[in-house]
Each structure stands twice: as structure tokens, then as C-alpha cells.
Amino acid sequence: xxxxxxxxxxxxxxxxxxxxxxxxxxxxIWEPLRRIASFDAAMISIRDPLTxxxxxxxxxxxxxxxxxxxxREYLSCHSYDVARARRKPIRMQDVGPSFYQTxxxxxxxxxxxxxxxxxxxxxxxxERGRITGLMTMSFGEARAADCLARRGxxxxxxxxxxxxxxxxxxxxxxxxxxxxAAAYMVDSNxxxxxxxxxxxxxxxxxxxxxxxRRLLASSNSSLVGYGARREGETWERVHIVxxxxxxxxxxxxxxxxxxxxxxxxxxxxRELEVLTLISRGMSNREIGxxxxxxxxxxxxxxxxxxxxxxxxxRSALASYAxxxxxxxxxx
Length: 331
Hints:
single chain, alpha+beta, five-stranded antiparallel sheet, Arc Repressor Mutant, subunit A, Beta-Lactamase
């Protein structure tokens, strides 16, 4: 690897450290990133940990229609799924010939003159960490997206994952919160302190506060799931992230982000419980014993879950539950 690339990677790390402390403009990251991969357009977006929606943090060169597509419809495209599963930067050619027939290529990339590109799903905490955002790069010359550029982006990916981690920057956390969402700090004693802007329309339930305390007592860094059921079909949609220990504070803390939402795909509360236990590797017999219902009934719930979520098998259901945080807290 060239010395200039190594220096650029180090510079990205320095800029991210300053940006997280709100001491640098995130857009300043493009200059060293261009020395790693000479892109013609690029974008970094933040993922809302509660809704899964993306919002651009900084954009260099994409026009608004394409920028909007990348942060909305593209997230349900096959090529995004490939990038998320591989956990490394992928190029158009890595997806295969089918990519050049997709809507994103035919309607957006080809017309703009982009012949190659990278998609990198950003994570905080390494390859197995939680998804925090997305970076895309587009190139007019396909050869510019070579293996050296991919290797450089792979090395800088963990740093970029921290850049868009909303739990590390209160300003970006506030920016992502919708009117029906709230943020809190919770300590190991269960004390709750509002951390978001203005009023806090959502008070966390005892179930959710207990989940915060259990996370602090464990070695885990984060947790996503559904807390208590509220009115009708509304649930607490919860994202909990451990904060680094701060010496002046007497106990450890988490950031709790919470909003009200319905369960996905029309699944029922019982199906949520079954899915939660499937994600832990339990058999139908074990799940039945835990929920005090027969294994045959559990089997029917599993069939319903496969149909509703569109997953092919039990293993895919377990991956879906973990990846998307479709689990019941406190079970």
C-alpha cells in the first residue's frame, strides 16, 4: 500500500475524532477519502437506529434524485443486501451481471455517467457491530475502483462507522429523532435523565429500563428490540447503547432511544415471543416449554413467521430477528 494512502487513512481517523467531538465539519473527510479512492461522487448517511431509515450526513457530487433514491428505495435492493451480508466494500461487478439491469443503474447511475462504484455498509464496533450508516462512491472510470482502493476503504470502514454512530454525537442523535421519539441516559441504578431536545413525550416502561440495567450488567455494547406493549398495536421500539465510562460519573450509563411503533409484517405478540426464542437457538420443544404451549402450536407460529417475513427457513428467521432487532425485551 502506498505511503500516501496510509497517510490518508490516518487523516480520516483524525477528522472523525474531531467530528464526533463537533470540532470538525464531516465534509472535510472527502479530501483524504479521495486520495484513497479517486471517486467522482460519494455520500455518507446516518442510519436511524429506531426506524432503519437513512439521512445524508455529507454528500459530494450526487444530484438530489439519486441521493434520495440511495437513502430510500436502494435500502431494499438486492445489491444493498449483498453489501450488508459481505460486510466489506462491494463493487457493481461484485454483485454480478444482474446489477446492470437494476433500476438504480438504469435510471440513475448510467445516465449520470457512472460506470463503477462501491457500496459500504457502515458499522460501529467492527464487522460484527451494529449498522450505523452507509457510504456509496461512484466512478466515471471503472478502473479507478480497483483492489487497492477497495482495500483502503476496507481499512477505514471501522472509523467511518464511528463517524455516523448517533450514540457518539448528541447533535446527530437529536437530528435523527422524530417528533414521536425520545432519548434518555439511564444508569445502572435505573435513574433516567432526558437526553433529547425539548419535551420528552415518551416515558420508558419498567421493562425497557430493566433492559438498560441488564445491558450495563453484561458485556454487550448495544441492544435493539421491542419493550412494553402500549395502546392497541403500539409498542416501544427501543435502541440501547452503552456509553464509555466517564471518570467523574459515579456509575455506567447507556443512551436509550425510544419511539412508538407497530410490530413489523403484522406479526402478533406471540409470534414476536417465538421469534425471540428462535434467535437464541431454541427448538420448538424448548420454546413450547418456555411459553407453556405445545410444540405443534409453536410449529404453526414458525410457519406464519416464515410467510409474513418472507424468510426461507428457521436460520434465516433467526438472522432476521438479530439483524433487525425484532425481539421482545425482558423475555
